[in-house]
Amino acid sequence: MRKITALRAIVGIAAIALAASGCTADGPANSDTATIGASLPLTGEFSQGGLDTQRGYETWVEMTNEGGGLVGKPVKIIVKDDATTQDTAVSNYNNLIAKDKVDLLLGSQSSLLNIPASAVAEKNKMLFVCPSCASPDMFSRGFSYIFFSQQAVASDQAKVFAHWIANLPPDQRPKTAAYPALDDPFAGPAVDGAEKILSAAGIRTVYKDQYPTTTKNFDSVVNAMKDAGAEMVVQGAQFEDGVNMIRAMNRAGYKPSIVFQSSSPTYGQQYLDGVGAQNAEGVFSSASYSPIAKTADNAEFVKRYEQKYGTTPPEDAADGFAAAQVLAAAVNAVGSYDDQAKLADWLRANIVETVLGPLSWNADGSPKGEFLVGQWQGGVSQVVLPTDVATTDKILRWQGGVI
Amino acid sequence: MVSLVQTLILGLQVGALYALMASGLTLIFGVMRVINLAHGAFAILAAFLTFTLWRNLGMDPILSIPVVMAVMFAIGWLVYVLVIRHVRGAHVSMTVLATFGIALVLEGAMGFIWGNTSTAVRTSYTDASLSLGPLYVPQAMLITAAIAALVIGGLYLLLNYTWTGRAIRAASTNEGGALLVGVSVATVAALTFAIGVATLGAGGAMLSTIYPFLPGTHYQWIARLLAIVVLGGLGSLPGAILGALVIGVGEMAATNYLGAAWPVAVPFLVIIVVLITRPQGILGTRLREDAVA
Q1: How far apart are the CA of A69 and the nearest CA of chain B, in angstroms?
Q2: What average pLDDT does the structure give for chain A?
């Protein structure tokens, strides 16, 4: 009897020990490490941006660890692939929080994925700094832990460009415009914002339509814009659709004098490879970043990125790096990440210097600044507007000709 | 009127690419009764092979077509021997699952080898056009149409004027009868699968010159290709050509006259309409199991 009781006690203790060790195994691998979790579209339609963002995150982790870590702890990042699907992004963030028990979160890539993913962070009261979530829908839900680490939301993305066009002398200003846009929470508002300003300036809308993410063939869209006689094209694009559009415009011999694309041209060398340098010449884009900007840590970031990946950092990589800078600024200022409401409060009250420039936020987490306007010139992505931060004073029409 | 003619030109040209890609799918179904869900993934694989030959060896995509077709033939044969052979006589759901599995493996392998980033082949003719007054004819698509005519014409000659073709048609029409007259149905099936994948090699090569591609895009292609062969009649080569041209023109017309959101719906609408009104497709024939008892 005594033997049986002892055996039960041993089994009981063993069970408790196993349960306890199980809890430990589910927790952070090492409490002396600051673990950051993120889900990114490493495969699927948005993989181009997702992979670049991952590189930005990883470059930041490497540089931060060399500089002593985050609040004295080495940083580890867990990145999961969401395959450009919303359900997987949600599942990934749930797993990062519940199973991996990460200390901090960084956002996914694109508003499409961040809108549902950020709801998981909000429910768990965790700070969610997203590098690419410009849709106004992100900030209309009364959330208090969500911050977008670029300069402006999508509806203001083409604002500087549109005001510049609207203020051109009448003989240089296009009279008609076409607005094709990806059916996406980011691309649509970017085009709507531009159209509002340009229409008010008397530039007539002759074509406006949205296409799904699966659209491959743009010949017919281009045919319709050409038939409508659009002198300017303002496209709300991600990556592949922007490349396809330029190629279809070339095939059709359609040469609008002004071409603006919201994201595609910011993919650096990949964009040039996709459309060809001569076809990129003069394409405008809204830009959050310039590799030659004299912003916080940018020179070091560019140097390290080039060493690691053999290419100049594209915008999404810089956006990822900047998101991590924002997260780190809040954690370092508060002194810990135990109370993430404090981190959010700190961000709402302060300005953070990043590789994109200084960033600050409204109460809803939307940024307060304005986007830069970039343009491809001679195979180099230049900042052309606003003029006080421009890297060149020359502004071109599409495929050549100074304005 | 100009707009309508331009829409027709673009639609027929896109349809030619679709026909080139769908011909192998319908051939495989016609002979083996296998719905090859990996067909889109094989197309993307051929596009990546073309890209590799173009980037590393400077080989023009048109000149690389025989090489790509040969490699795809070998891959098709291998996949048949390793996977399809074991499920060929099984219920259709087994072949669907098996080929879907092949598609996923191919997608993963392509992502591992070439990465999951958008890739494109650009040559002097990829973005150029011929002008015909107010109309334009994209050169890459015109070349694609010519290659489609050559490859599909070659396939037609092979099927109708060679012993191999007769064996394939015999196995397709009556497998038991073919066995009785000495046709090795197993070898014919392997050959058919390999030929189907090889013709797709030409389609994938030309696809790479017209559209950017990445491993995950095969889902979009298989949906479209299935709609084409269902419309034309599963197993019918002329039906696949007709279906491809109808879908191509339909997509272009939908974009032009209904809106850019509609072309994606066209293939699915076609499948629904065909299944309701003419389940055997335009040029398909009713199978014995379709008959009402």
Answers
A1: 31
A2: 89
Query: Going by C-beta distance under 8 Å and a sequence separation of 6 or more, which residues neighbour residue B278?
Result: none
The 8-class DSSP code of residue A28 comes to -
**Helix ranges, chain B (H):** 2-32, 39-57, 61-79, 85-87, 92-114, 139-161, 163-173, 175-180, 185-210, 218-232, 237-257, 265-277
| Strand order across the A128-130 sheet | A75-81, A34-40, A104-106, A128-130, A146-148
DSSP-assigned letters across all residues of B1-42: -HHHHHHHHHHHHHHHHHHHHHHHHHHHHHHH----TTHHHH
Residue A137 DSSP one-character state: G
Chain B residues with CB inside 8 Å of A240's CB?
A: 118, 212, 214
Dihedral (C-alpha) B172, B174, B176, B182: value to the nearest 10 degrees? -70
pLDDT digits (tens, 9 = 90+) for A346-394: 999 999 999 999 999 999 999 998 888 999 999 888 889 888 778 889 9
Element (H, E) at A179: strand A176-182
Question: What fold does the segment set A34-153+293-359 form as a domain?
Answer: Rossmann fold (3.40.50)
| Under 8 Å between Cβ of A312 and A268 | yes
Nearest CA to B206 out of B251, B250, B148 is that of: B148
**Whole-complex ipTM:** 0.80
CATH 3.40.50.2300 maps onto chain A at 34-153+293-359, 156-291+372-389
Best to test chain B binding among A217, A218, A281 (most B CBs inside 10 Å): A217
Q: Do A243 and B7 touch (CB under 8 A)?
A: no
Pairing relationship of beta strands A204-211 and A176-182 according to DSSP bridges: parallel
8 Å CB contact of B126 and A253: no
pTM of the model: 0.78
Name the residue type at position B177. G
Q: Give me the architecture of the A156-291+372-389 domain, per CATH.
A: 3-Layer(aba) Sandwich (3.40)
* Widest distance between CA atoms in chain A: 103
Residues 6 or more apart whose CB falls under 8 angstroms from that of A303 comprise none
Handedness of CA B37, B41, B44, B48 (dihedral sign): negative
Beta bridge partners of B271: none
Q: Whole domain around residue B198: which residue ranges?
A: 2-290
How far apart CA A367 and CA A354 sit, in angstroms, is 13
Which residue matches tokens 């090489």? B67
DSSP B91-104: -HHHHHHHHHHHHH
A287, β-bridge pairs: A372
Nearest to B260 among A221, A227, A243 (CB): A221
* Number of separate domains in chain B: 1
Render pLDDT for A192-236 as a digit per residue (tens, 0 to 9).
Answer: 999 999 999 999 999 999 998 888 889 889 989 998 999 999 999
Looking at the complex, report in whole angstroms how far the Cα of residue A229 sits from the nearest Cα belonging to chain B: 13
Which chain B residues have any C-beta within 8 angstroms of a chain A C-beta? 3, 6-7, 10, 14, 111, 115-118, 120, 122, 126-129, 131, 136, 138, 140, 211-212, 214-217, 220, 251-252, 255-256, 259-261, 263-264
Contacts of A212 in chain B (CB under 8 A): 260-261, 264
Residue B17, domain CATH: 1.10.3470
**Residue A158 contacts residue A260 (beta carbons within 8 Å):** yes
Alpha-carbon separation of residue A153 from A128, A317, B168, B276 (angstroms): 16, 18, 60, 47
Cα–Cα dist B66/B83, whole Å: 25
